[in-house]
Input
Amino acid sequence: MASTTNGKRLGVMRNPVRLKGFTLIELLVVLVILGLLASLVGPRIMNHLGKSKTKTTVLQIEELSSALDLFQLDTGRYPTTEEGLASLLKAPSGVDTWNGPYLKKAQIRKDAWGHDYHYKSPSEHGDYEIYSYGSDNAEGGDGEARDVYSWE
Output
C-alpha cells in the first residue's frame, strides 16, 4: 500500500499529463499532401520559369539592338562581326566618331542561360543579327532550348 502524507495518498497517478505533439502518422500524412501539391504545381512553375528566361533573352537582345542603333547613328555603320558587341563598350580602332559606351553596364550581358550572345554583321536578315541558341546552346531546339533571334 502506498504511503500517505497529510492524508493524501502517494502512488500511481490516475491521469498522467500527456505531452502535446504530432504523431508519426500525422507527419506522414502532411508529407504525402505536400508531395501531391508539389507534383501538381511544380511542372507549371517550371514551365513559367522557362518562358521567363526566353522573354528575358528577347528583352536583352532588344537592348543590344538599341545600343547598336546608337552606335550606327554616331559612326555611320554597325560594328563588323570581328569587332563584335564589345565595340558597344570600347571604341574599335579607326573609329573617330564613337561616342560610347552605349550600354549602362560595363560588360556585355550573357543570355538568361549564361551563354554569350552571337553577333553577325552584315547579315542575310538585315544590317546585323543577334541571337541566342537557348538553354542547350546549340542550333535548333524546342521549348526552353529554342533559338532566339533579333529578326523574329
In short: The mean pLDDT is 83. The longest strand covers residues 129-132. The chain is about 35% helix and 10% strand. The first helix runs from residue 24 to 75.
